[in-house]
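Input record, target 12 of the design panel.
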């Protein structure tokens, strides 16, 4: 039982740390302006924020083939992902 408690605490901590690094949707809204010609936020609404952040990083790094060359930092990617995943205008 004690082991389970420790595991649960570790999971809670990991979650807390993850949230602390989560993107800022308000900041993402402004940054996503550069993408708005081709992407509406609702295109990515409901996406997993972590996966979407990674997808944006992959596009930015050139790992994923993408129509436009985009320049976004890792922090920008997290912010844009937070904004898009929320699916708000
Ligand atoms: C000129 C149009 C255009 C602009 C500007 C644009 N995109 Fe895209 N993007 C596309 C198209 C078209 C696709 C789907 C096909 C492809 O990947 O080329 C796509 C796909 C994506 C995908 C999904 C890739 C995957 O994993 O399949 C992500 C993430 C993405 N774009 C992020 C961005 C971000 C972030 C910006 C702004 C910083 C941006 N795009 C700006 C046209 C654009």
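The sequence produced for target 12 reads:
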């Amino acid at each position: 039982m004690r082991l389970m408690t420790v595991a649960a605490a570790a999971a809670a901590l990991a979650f807390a740390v993850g949230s602390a690094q989560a993107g800022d949707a308000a900041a993402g809204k402004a940054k996503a302006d550069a993408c708005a010609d081709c992407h509406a936020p609702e295109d990515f609404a409901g996406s997993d924020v972590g996966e979407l952040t990674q997808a944006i990083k992959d596009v930015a790094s050139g790992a994923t083939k993408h129509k436009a060359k985009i320049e976004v930092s890792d922090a920008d990617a997290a912010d844009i992902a937070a904004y898009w995943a929320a699916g708000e205008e």
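DSSP finds four helices and no strands in the chain.
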